Amino acid sequence: MTDRLAARPRQTARRDRGTKDYTELSRIITASGLMRRRYGYYWSKLVGAAVVLGGAITVFVIIGDSWWQIFMGAALAIVFAQIAMLGHDAAHRQIFASGRWNDWTSLVLGNLLVGMSYGWWQHKHTRHHANPNKIGADPDIELPVIAFTAEQVDERARHRSGAVAWLMAHQGILFFPILLLEGLSLHASSVRRVVSPAPLRHRTVEIAFLAIRIGGYLALVFLVLSPGIAAVFLAVQLGLFGLYLGMTFAPNHKGMPLVPADAKLDFLRRQVLMSRNVRGSRLLDVAMGGLNYQIEHHLFPSMPRPHLRQASRTIRAYCERLGVRYTETSLWASYGIVSRYINRVGLGERDPFECPLLQQRQTV
What we know:
Structural class: mainly alpha
Largest sheet: 2 strands, parallel
Helix content: 55-70%
Radius of gyration: 22 Å
């Protein structure tokens, strides 16, 4: 009991220090102008997205019933993924000062153009941002197919057949191929959410937009293409769409330390220590929708995408001054880390990565 009472002042002091650290960083970032809106950038993105999507659909109709449509399926996968990333920016209040404008932009981009429920995504993603990589709190490490923790492995081992055992032992290798099903899963999860009894703010609008998008898209595909070509086209488009999004999000937190369910962390360290940046050119920034600056995005979710690169220099230097580990790697190295981590968990390793924050706690 005495040890517990003695630990409380130290924990309170750490939390107070962490609050001050983030407050100071926020002051620096705001003073540098990195939180200001970029209306010209985003309006050009919004108009460009509409033009490109309209042009892609026009080309699709002109090509007609041809196996060349497989390439259109790949092109549309990229277009839809880029629109989804733009919807992600709107959902984080990066585009407009008005919350209402951001909400409706997200509904149009997500539900109407991509076929993903904004309400479903917002509920899931908000929980992830609040507790990245925290066991029992982050939905992004609670997947039905892949195990990210030893506890998940133990739970699934109770019902393990020979095939399941093999899959879990090789889940690191299979992780990226499984992402080919992610596009279909995103659409299915969206439909389940809007028809479920769970609270949903814009339910009527979301149902209408999803019905128009999914129903209209399928009708167009099967009107233009014969059944066989249509099936292949949809498989390519949905498969590559899910793979693209999955390979964009996977490097951000997978293979980073997991946070115990009972751990209490200050905001700055909770976001920085559990996130990974992916360094690269401005072309990579476009390809990943700015999500390669995951640390900056988690610290300042409403920061406009074009400011993230500049902010990363300031935040990296600040973290180095505090002695907080700032993780950054190349894209291909990050994929290797993710694959090895998931494989080690699947093989039953109890603690494949030590949490640097817990190491710091033990030395205080």
